[in-house]
Design brief:
The structure is a single chain. By secondary structure, this protein is mainly α. It has one domain. The protein has a two-stranded antiparallel ribbon. Strands 3-4 form a two-stranded antiparallel sheet.
Length: 161
Amino acid sequence: MHPRCVNCHVGPDNTPMWTLVGEAGTRPHGMNINADASRSGAQELPCGTCHTTSTTPNTVAHAPPHAGIPWQLAPVDFVWFGKTGGEICRQMRDPKRNGSRDAAGLVAHLQHDAALNGFIPWAWSPGGGRSTPPGTFEDHVRDITIWGSAGQPCPGDPKPQ
């Protein structure tokens, strides 16, 4: 539910979100972008047009952030914006909505993407005064591992008997 996460795990209307430095709220992307099914930007304006691969923008508070790879949003099935923690949790454990992954598969996905392109770990060091999720990327992977070992419980689940 952290803004750094839901900026890319957008809402059902496919509009990327912005959480600007110095602002408390999140708002729709300022360039009137709709990501469509490609997840890499509008047909006329790919994300990489502004989210470049140089390292300079991460040091500037209001420059377009990037992770050093071609920029794209999370898949349509991974919509999180506006959802509660319980809703996101149930989505993450549902193979029909998480890329056909069990708990170990979710951990493998995080580790694979981290090694492949650094995109997810970037959220914990975005630079430019941007907020970060709690802990570190390594903490996140460990927490997902523990959650999986515990049977993937979610807020709002019935209490075990």
